[in-house]
Amino acid sequence: MxxxxxxxxxxxxxxxxxxxxxxxxxSRQGWINPTFFGRPSGVALFLWENLQTLKxxxxxxxxxxxxxxxxxxxxxxxxxxxxxxxRWPRLExxxxxxxxxxxxMPRIALAxxxxxxxxxxxxxKIAVGFSLTFFIVLSSTVAGIxxxxxxxxxxxxxxxxxxxxxxxxxxxxxAVPVIFSGLRLGLTYALFGVIGAxxxxxxxxxxxxxxxxxxIFDINGVMALLLILALLGVGIxxxxxxxxxxxxxxx
Amino acid sequence: xxxxxxxQLSFDGHNDVLSDVTLHIADGEFVSLVGPSGCGxxxxxxxxxxxxxxxxxxxxxxxxxxxxxGNPQIAYMLARDxxxxxxxxxxxxxxxxxxxxxxxxxxxxxxxxxxxEVGLGAFENALPKSLSHGMRQRTAxxxxxxxxxxxxxxxxxxxxxxxxxxxxxxxxxxxxxDLHKHTVLFVTHDLSEAxxxxxxxxxxxxxxxxxxxxxxxxxxxxRSIRELQKDPSFHExxxxxxxxxxxxxxxxxx
Lengths: 251, 254
Description:
- Chain A has 251 residues and is an all-alpha fold.
- Chain A has helices spanning 2-28, 34-37, 40-50, 54-87, 89-104, 111-118, 122-146, 150-159, 163-200, 206-215, 219-247.
- By secondary structure, chain B is of the alpha/beta class.
- Chain B has helices at 41-49, 89-99, 104-117, 133-146, 163-179, 191-197, 225-230, 232-253; strands spanning 2-10, 16-25, 30-34, 59-62, 74-77, 151-155, 183-187, 200-205, 210-216.
- In chain B, helix 3 packs across helix 4 and helix 4 (133-146) packs parallel to helix 5.
């Protein structure tokens, strides 16, 4: 097992060296234009210099705050509304066309409006992230609760289990797998929404810096930020997987 | 303990699911309901459990009252184990007792004792995913018997098991019923299972469900599945039930 994962790590390292080496070579030989594509060594240099300054870390914190706030607010609101929908199906039936209309609309199109309403600060970023996370978690909450085993419900009914006990001991744990897949997706979308809104207009944040660097043709900087965003995304998914494994160890 | 008088039931108002069903089960008696699929045997069981409301003619009484869900006098067992996959065997076994108001310590003690009785004493902390089908159904038996309700309603509890495991669990059920005297209504489509475990086997015909035979099983207890296989009267009863089942079926078809 250990040897196997070491082998994989070595293989990946070799592949990365190959890819970055090829990029470096292509750019030095003039096969690709570094003005548009940057250069691996330039990206490395940018990261080395900027990771020592406060600016990049501030941006990172700013973006992460936006992501976490929109994720938490969006998920909590979606969970509450999802419960209400399961409790009162007519409410869901009534709201469905409106929710569908909002859900199919590209939410990033709301960003300019949110920026007008909530300003250039975190508020508008959270609003966009929220609008994405909310719908994903909402549908998974409803689906998760509806997916609860009918046998379990019959059992609870015959036992005379109270509604509260049934909900907390049976319905909720049974719904966790489906809800969790919604949360995982919701978090990735929160990142998407926050970065998108930052690119459009923002005081700070990785998205804002990305837009700025691209406007001054600092392609190495852009590439470096894309790398950071990719790593951030991977980190988020990893963290979610870890939590899921603990929470769903019974699966 | 269970008494149904001239029970009639229809879901759509035209076609009877049950027609003129009269069945009396004495305290401590083990009665099996057999019949072709769709004959309404599960419906009759669910009527007794209060899961299906009795909207038709006749009367039903279970444990000295009208059937109702949540009655602590009744324990219901489903065909599938319906264990909670996030709870250990012990937590699953104590669930029913807990829900019905026993203190945590008492529930734990009873669940523990029952798990030991069904042969899973060493698996208290196992999650359902690591238990075999047979072990899971044993846990479900422990959950059911731990409640110590006077009336047990069982809906093909071994229907989803392979033949070998089924025989083992039938033996276990015989043992449990000898130890704890309950009144049992047991739905099955397996005639040899019905003969093996019951004091009486009631045969139903297909729609509308009606009782076509009520056969006492005078085999001595304690019984063992293996010994029963060698007993000629076991096979006679089996043949007798077959012919009742067939007659109910052909009468309906003709």
